[in-house]
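Colleagues,

Please find the record for the two-part complex below.
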Amino acid sequence: MDKILRIDVGAEGGPKATTEELGDYAGLGGRAMTSIVVATEVPADCHALGPENKLVISPGLMAGSAASTSGRMSFGCKSPLTGGIKEANAGGQAGQYLARLGYAAIIIEGEAKTDDLYLVYIGQDKIEFKVDNSLRMLPNYDLCDKLKPVYGEKVSIISIGTAGEMKMANSTIAVTDVEFRPTRHAGRGGVGAVMGSKGIKALVIDPAGTKIRKPVDQEKFKASNKEFVEGLKRHAVTGQGLPTFGTNVLTNILNEAGAYPTYNFKEGRYKDHADLSGEAQANLENERGGPGSATLGCHRGCAIQCSGTYYDKDGNFLSKQPEYETTWSHGGNCGIHDLDVVAKLDFMDDNYGFDTIEMGATIGVAMEAGVIEFGDTEGAIRLVDEAGKGTPLGRILGAGTAVTAKCFGLEHAPVVKGQAMPAYDPRGVKGIGVTYATTTMGADHTAGYCIATNILKVGGDVDPHAVEGQAELSRNLQIATAALDATGFCLFVAFAILDQQDTFSAMIETINGMYGLSMTADDVVELGKTILKKEREFNQKAGLGKEHDRLPRYFKREALAPHNITFDVPDEELDSVYNF
Amino acid sequence: MDKILRIDVGAEGGPKATTEELGDYAGLGGRAMTSIVVATEVPADCHALGPENKLVISPGLMAGSAASTSGRMSFGCKSPLTGGIKEANAGGQAGQYLARLGYAAIIIEGEAKTDDLYLVYIGQDKIEFKVDNSLRMLPNYDLCDKLKPVYGEKVSIISIGTAGEMKMANSTIAVTDVEFRPTRHAGRGGVGAVMGSKGIKALVIDPAGTKIRKPVDQEKFKASNKEFVEGLKRHAVTGQGLPTFGTNVLTNILNEAGAYPTYNFKEGRYKDHADLSGEAQANLENERGGPGSATLGCHRGCAIQCSGTYYDKDGNFLSKQPEYETTWSHGGNCGIHDLDVVAKLDFMDDNYGFDTIEMGATIGVAMEAGVIEFGDTEGAIRLVDEAGKGTPLGRILGAGTAVTAKCFGLEHAPVVKGQAMPAYDPRGVKGIGVTYATTTMGADHTAGYCIATNILKVGGDVDPHAVEGQAELSRNLQIATAALDATGFCLFVAFAILDQQDTFSAMIETINGMYGLSMTADDVVELGKTILKKEREFNQKAGLGKEHDRLPRYFKREALAPHNITFDVPDEELDSVYNF
C-alpha cells in the first residue's frame, strides 16, 4: 500500500493510468484517504457528475493483512445525492486484493471524451482499459456472470449496475463477495453515478501473484489480532447476535423500543414486525438450508460472520441474507411483511445497483403519494424494476427519496441533506436523530451509531428519549467511526471495543504491530477529528452549513406513536456536535 | 389599503377569514409587504408545502389609484422551487381591485384539514368560502369559463391550474387580464403549489361598489402622474419599442449581442432567431388582425401597453402575445422557431399554470437528455401536456429544470438556487449573470435587469463582457427593483426613470401625492435595501448562504459562442453585491 493509481478518463486516446507515490497522502487509508483526497483535489462547488469530481477508492489501513474483519473499502467523491462530501464503504473481497496489489488508493478523474463504456483490469503485471459497450445496461449479477468465464472467480469485481450508468442519484458501487456475487455495496449517496459519469462500468481486481501483507512487528501483530478476535467472539452482539441472526436481530428490538419507522415514518411500531425479524429469517434460512444459508462473512478473514444466503422455499437462490435496514426499508416502512418479497427486492437493488435504504424509503414516499398502496408487494417490485430500467417513473425513484417527494409535492420526505433516513426513527432514538442531522454524510446511521448506547446499552446508557447527552454521544461516536472507517475494520467491531477496553487496546495494538507504530487511543480520536473537520469544511464550501444540520421540520411537529414523542433536541445542541 | 385579510385554512369547520389592522406592516405594499411578512412570520426552515408556510398576496402601494402602470401585485412565500424566500409579481386586474377593496395584503396560512378544494369570494360586503371539488384539475382557462357565468367579467380571478393543485415546484398563480383571460402570472418559484397546498383553487376579487383610491394631495398626484406618463411615452423603449413589438423586441438585440441562449445554453446565437423576433411577431399579428392583436395593457391604466393577443392564421385565439422570455424558452432555447407553436405552448403553460421560463428551460434540459430531439415541436407540446396532466414524466418536468436534470443525470442545468435562468446568457451579459447568482430569488432577470445598461445602454453603459462594474450595476438595480416592486409600478417604467431624471422624480412625486409624503430618491433606495436585507436574512436561515450565490460551474468552464467567453466574475465580486 505504498502507491496511488491515478486514472485519467479524459486522456488523449482513452483512459490512462499512472502510478504515483503517496506524498502527502502517506499514512492514510479508507475514509481518511477518500475524504482527504476529495477535500484536497475536488472543488467543493463542482457538479457531482461533472469533470471536476473524482472517485476515490481506498482500502482500509489494515486491508490485505491477516487482521481480522478488516475488509471494508471506502469510496469517496462529491455526492450526487447530497451535494456534499461522501464516503460509502463496502465489504467484499476487493479491498483485500487491492491492498495486496499495493494500492492505497485509486483516484478516477477527468472527463470521458466519448460515450464508450470501459472495463478496467488491475493486476500485478498490468493495468488494462478495454472498451466494452456490450456491457451497457447489464445489471451487476449479469455482469459478473459474463466476466466469470473471462477472469475466473479469484478476482473481485467492482462494478456499477444500470443505475450508475444512468447516473442516478441513488446508485451504488458493487463489490463481489466470497462467492463472486455482487452483494456488497458502497450504497449511500450515489457513488455509482460518479463512476458512471467517468464511463467506467467495472474494475477487475486480480490478486494473482500477490501475497498477504506482512506486519512490521509480526509478534505484536499476531498476539494482538488473536486477542482482538477473542474479544469479538466474547461479546454478545458480535459473538452471538450478529452471527446467529445477522443484522436483522434488530427488528424486534427496535419495534419494542417504538422506534421502528413504519408507513413512511408515520408510526414507531409495526404490527407484523415478527414476520420480518431476524429470528423469523434465521428459522426460514435454517429450514430451507442450502450453502451459506446460515452464517457467512462478506469477505474472507471476518470473525463476526453476520452474512448469509437467502433461498426461496424451493431452494433457489433469492439474494444474500438481507440486512436489517433492508428488511425495514422494503418491509416495515412500506407495510410489507413477506421476507421472500424483501429478499427479491434486495436482489433487484443489488442487481440494478440501488441502495436498499434509499430505495425503500423512496417507495415509502411513493406509497404515501398514492403511486401504489402501502403493502403492495407486486407494486413495489414493479417500481424497483421501473427504476432499474429508467422509465420516467423510474427516473423519479432513482433520483432518491427527496426528489420523489418533490416530484409528488409531498412534505413527508424523511431525509437530511437529501439522503434518506435509515431504519431508526429519530424521534424514538434521539441520539441517532442527532447523527442524522449533523453527520457530513446526510442521514446515515453508520456515521455515529447511537443505537448502540441508546438502545443496546453498549458503551454506556443514554436514555433514547432524553435530550441530554445525545449531542455528546453522537459526537464521540462520529469521531470514533471516522477513525474506524480509515482502518478497514468493520463498524461492527465497535460493539466489542466500546464495551471491552482490552478489545479496543488489542485493535490498536494490531494496527501498531502492522505498521510498527505506537499509537494510542488519543491518536485514534485525533485521526477521527481530522477526518470530520476536513469533511465538514468541504460541505461548508459546498453550501451545506449548519442550517443543513437539521431534521425536516415535521419530525419536530408530528408526534410518533406509541410514545407520542417529537424530535426536540434544540438546534444549539445540534450545532455543538462539532465543538471539538 | 388599511387592513389585512388573514385566512386560516386550518380553522375548525373550514377556512376562516379575519380582518386585522396593518400594525407593524403599515406603509408596506407589494414585495415590501410579502417579503417582510414572510420573513417575520414564516420559519425559514419550514417545508414550502407544509403548514408553517404562508402565501402572502399584496397589491403595490399605488394599486387601485389613478397612477399609471401601477397594477403589479406581489405573491410571496417560501419557494417550493428554490427553498428560499419568493416574491413573484403579476399584472392583471386583481391588484387594482384588491387595493380598492382596501386590502394591503391577504395572508393565507395554516394546514387544510380536508382535501377539499375551496373557492374564495372577496367582495365589499362579504367574504365567502365555497367547497367546490368540481373545479378539481381544471386548467385556468376552463376555470374562468366556468366562473364567468356565475360572477360576470367585472371581477378578477386569482387561480391555480393543475400544476398548482399537484403542488409542482413549477406552478404559477394566474390573474385575469382586461379580457378576463388568465394570462398574467406570478410565474416564478412555484407560488402556485403553495396556494395548492392550502387547498385554495381560486380567489374571486370583486370590486363592485368600490371606488378608485383617492390621493391625499390630489393636485400633486395629478400633475406628477401626468409628467410620469409623458416621460414613459417619450422614452424609446417604453414609448416605442415595447408598445410596437412587445417584450419580444429583444430577440434580435440579444441574438446580435451573442447572448441569446440556444440549445439549452449551448450557443449564444440562433440561426433562426428572425422567425421568433418581435418584428416577425408584430407582422404576423398585424397581418392576421383581430381584437387586441396589436397593443394592449395587461391591466387598465397602463401607459406602456406592451401586451397583445395572438391569433392563428385562421383568426382563432391562440394565446396572449407571448413575451420575449417565452419565445426564447420555448423557441430558441429548444431549437424551435415557429411562433404559432410558441403561442400554443404559451397558452398551455397559462392554462395548466406553468412558468414559461422554467418550463422552456426544463424542456431544453429534457432535449439535451434525449427525451425528445431539439426542434421537436410536437414533442414539446406533448411534454407540456404530460406535465399538466401529471404523468410520471410530467411529474419530473413539473418539478422544474434542476430536478429534471437530476432525474436524467445531467450536469447542464442552467439554474441558480434551483430556479432556471431566463433568456440572457450570463456569459454574454455578465451583469445579468451577477444578478442571477446573487438575487435572493434564484436565477431571475427581473430582480436586477442589467440588460438595460449592459445591452440597451439605459441608465449608463457597462460593457457586457467586462468584469468591472457588474457587481455595482447589479447591486444598484437590485435595490431599485426591490423598491419598485413595492410600489406596484411595472418594472418596465425603469427604462424611462433610469434615463430620465425628471420622470424618476415624477414617479416619486406621484407616490408622495398619493400618500401625502415627501419621500426622496434616498428613501426609495433605503426601502430597497431593507427589503433585500430581510430577504437575504431569510435565505441565510433557510440554508442559502453565499455559497449558493454562484452560477453552475460549467458557465465558468465552457465558453459561449460566438464570443467564446466564460463567466469570469470572481466570487469575491459576487459576495460584494450585498455590501450595503
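The longest strand of chain A covers residues 103-109.

Comments are welcome before we finalize the supplementary table.
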